[in-house]
Amino acid sequence: MALMKTKILPKLGINQSRQNSAAGGGVRVVAPESLDGLPPDSPEARASRRDLRVLNGLLGTNAWFGGVMRERVRAGEAVLEIGAGTGELARHLRPVAPGLAGLDLLARPGDWPATAPWFQTDVLSFADWDRFPVVIGNLFFHHFDPAQLAGLGAQLGGARMIIANEPLRTTLTARLFSLVSPLMGAHPVTRHDGRISIAAGFRHDELARLLQLDPEVWHWRAEETWLGANRLVAERRS
Ligand SMILES: C[S@@+](CC[C@H](N)C(=O)[O-])C[C@H]1O[C@@H](n2cnc3c(N)ncnc32)[C@H](O)[C@@H]1O
Question: How far, in Å, from the CA of 142 to the mean position of ligand 1?
Fold first, then answer.
């Protein structure tokens, strides 16, 4: 992944997606990730979060979210990042969404602004969705099986916009990850979780369909990058 320039396939029309034709990718498999079971301050968890920062850098994650949000999010709209982890992405997005709220199983990050909400909770039991017209998630939705995603989609039904960046489930992504992991000195936890995450990732507009977004109510655009990201921007029809 480190050695190639990210190529984003051409933008697509409403409720369309395009396949990265260079790779196959099998049935989606959801399995537990090691990082989720580690004490957040353990050396293994710290190392794996450092690797996530590197991978997000290689994938151009922060820039992509920033660009989409600058273009699509309306002034004053409340934004919630689900699975916000240690707040890396939020830190980058503050200039675009100053009051951005975070949700994670983890405790509020030490440098999270006092004026911005933080919810330490399981996303599946969160109840304050109606406060947030814009919901974003990075490397998060792939944690959930189809029934959980359908439940989450029902909760998100009141939102105006959903923005997600997830692993692309292809054999090419898996091969690139195997190649890059040793080059970047990835921790064994990252190597394990990366494989699990890719197998649980998405193709085309699979995430929108698993969330069971109603095409009469939503339009969406799904993109796949050659470096292994599957990206969704879903917006409620006005
Ligand atoms: C792979 S990490 C991604 C973190 C961050 N978005 C990033 O890109 O660096 C997934 C995050 O989801 C959180 N998470 C997993 N399951 C969750 C759940 N059921 N509810 C809330 N957060 C969850 C984990 O604690 C972790 O911080």
Answer: 10
